[in-house]
Write a structure and sequence with these properties.
- The complex is a heterodimer of chains A (372) and B (80).
- Chain A is built from 18 helices and no strands.
- Chain A folds into 2 domains: 41 residues; 249 residues, no CATH class.
- Chain A is mostly helical.
- Chain A is flat, with a radius of gyration of 23 Å.
- Chain B has a 4-stranded mixed sheet with strand order 2-1-3-4.
- In chain B, β1, α1 and β2 form a beta-alpha-beta unit.
- Chain B is globular.
- The chains are: A mainly alpha (372), B alpha+beta (80).
- Chains A and B meet through α1, α5 and α7 of A and α2, β4 and α3 of B.
């Protein structure tokens, strides 16, 4: 026993949150006061440089398009190219910064800890907490099933679990960053608020409906314990490394979608006539909101690909409510995730889930078309 | 030693399994590596997100592909 404890001391980094591999090398070194000071200076310089470059992007894209490539001012191609050259670095820079910060925040939250917080919570409070935790808890849709089982079998109410499962993909940092960067803080805030509301209310309604019998029997027979929260005491150095790993991982995965999305957006920006979208996606077309939701369900894209397209659609006269409904439907109700969830939920339950969340999104769409 | 790699079979899970195999081979330890893709069993082990590595019933890592160094460290710890 003593031997084992000695060994534990020698190799302390047995944290269960698995930071990136590189952090291993740094762990032996205890950061001194000088090193912390150095790190802070370095970060401040980095942030300053980031803002300096960010401020210049607009004029740089204009310079590249019309001076270096010498495209004609006011031409379709010129408009498309400058849109692309402006949005791509802007979005990638915003993503890098925010994912770094969120990556650090996420080292404080694990699915296990979230489960511990939610287990045994009353429904209404639980739904709100679950939706909020859905934003900061690291989650990927591959883990939807083990997470669902782990939550439900440890005594997290079904409706509360579903609030989490709706909020986690829908209200994510990538969606918010892109909306902020391309459409401004008001749209981003609206999205955050209504996305949370849809997650909270849908989960609450499904909880009220008493759908527990529509969970597959083998799940209900299991019992797990919410108290087994693996220890993750990380040093600040490890948390910073966690942020870095998140940037490498997420930007590495989504950059191609971002660029593809921006390219489509640039095409729409340059070539689709002004006001064209107003007829099919404008406020006047009442059927456009349900159509947007229905089209959005089988579409599987992440926020990174969909926001630049939305940006361009809005510019050409599409209504905000319709566009937000489309985006929510694409990222929150995805067919692949439903197929995965089918392993633990019976078809009736999946149907109710889609119907309730879909109606919530529909409501959001109509509400915004009416208000704005 | 019994090492369980939990994952439904997505790209990251396969990556995690390969890293574990490499590490075991490199460390030259005698270990049985099991791939767990059954969700019920994962839940019993206490795994909430995948890929996860469980060594002798103890969860070492969840929700991330571990680095080879980390796996080597876990193997060493058990040998002591």
């Amino acid at each position: 026993m003593l031997d084992k404890e000695e060994a534990m001391k020698e190799i302390p980094p047995i944290s269960c949150s698995c930071p990136d591999g590189k952090s291993m090398e740094n762990k032996a070194v205890k950061p001194g006061a000088g090193q912390i000071f150095y790190t802070i200076i370095l970060m401040a310089a980095g942030v300053a440089l980031w803002f300096l470059i960010y401020r210049q992007l607009s004029s740089f894209s204009v310079f590249l398009t019309y001076s270096v490539l010498s495209l004609r001012q006011g031409s379709h191609l010129g408009a498309a190219v400058s849109f692309f050259l402006y949005d791509t670095p802007k979005v990638l820079m915003l993503l890098g910064l925010v994912i770094y910060v969120v990556g650090i925040i996420r080292t404080f939250f694990t699915p296990e800890r979230t489960r511990k917080i939610l287990a045994g919570k009353r429904e209404s409070v639980g739904n709100i907490l679950a939706a909020l935790l859905g934003i900061v808890t690291p989650f990927c849709s591959c883990s939807a099933v083990p997470l669902f089982i782990g939550f439900v079998t440890a005594g997290v109410p079904l409706g509360v679990t579903l609030s989490f499962l709706v909020a986690a993909p829908m209200v994510n940092e990538i969606a918010l960053v892109l909306l902020y960067g391309l459409l401004g803080w008001k749209v981003a805030a609206l999205y955050l608020f209504t996305g949370l509301m849809v997650a909270i209310v849908s989960g609450w309604i499904i909880g009220r409906l008493g759908m527990e019998r529509h969970i597959e029997e083998w799940v209900l027979e299991l019992r797990t314990n919410a108290d087994t929260v693996p220890d993750n005491k990380l040093t600040w150095n490890e948390r910073l490394n966690g942020g870095k790993a998140a940037v490498v991982d997420i930007v590495g995965r989504v950059w191609i979608y971002v660029i593809a999305g921006i390219a489509v957006g640039a095409g729409i920006h340059g070539y689709v006539p002004e006001g064209f979208m107003a007829t099919i996606m404008g406020k006047g077309a009442w059927w456009s909101v349900p159509a947007a939701v229905v089209i959005g369900i089988p579409m599987y894209s992440n926020a990174a690909g969909i926001v630049p397209v939305i940006h361009a659609l809005l510019e050409k006269g599409a209504a905000l409510g319709t566009v937000l409904a489309f985006m929510m439907s694409v990222i929150a109700l995805s067919l692949p995730e439903m197929v995965i969830l089918r392993k633990v939920l019976k078809p009736a339950m999946i149907g109710v889930f889609i119907a309730v969340v879909g109606s919530g999104i529909l409501l959001v769409g109509y509400l915004f078309n009416m208000v704005i | 030693m019994e090492i369980k790699v939990c994952g439904p079979g997505c790209a990251n899970c396969t990556k995690a399994e390969n890293i574990v195999r490499e590490a075991v081979a490199a460390a030259g330890v005698d270990a049985e590596i099991l791939k767990i893709s059954d969700f019920a069993e994962m839940a019993k082990l206490g795994v909430l997100s995948t890929p996860a590595i469980v060594i002798n019933g103890q969860i070492k890592c969840v929700g991330k592909v571990p680095a080879k160094n980390e796996v080597l460290a876990w193997l060493k710890e058990k040998n002591c």
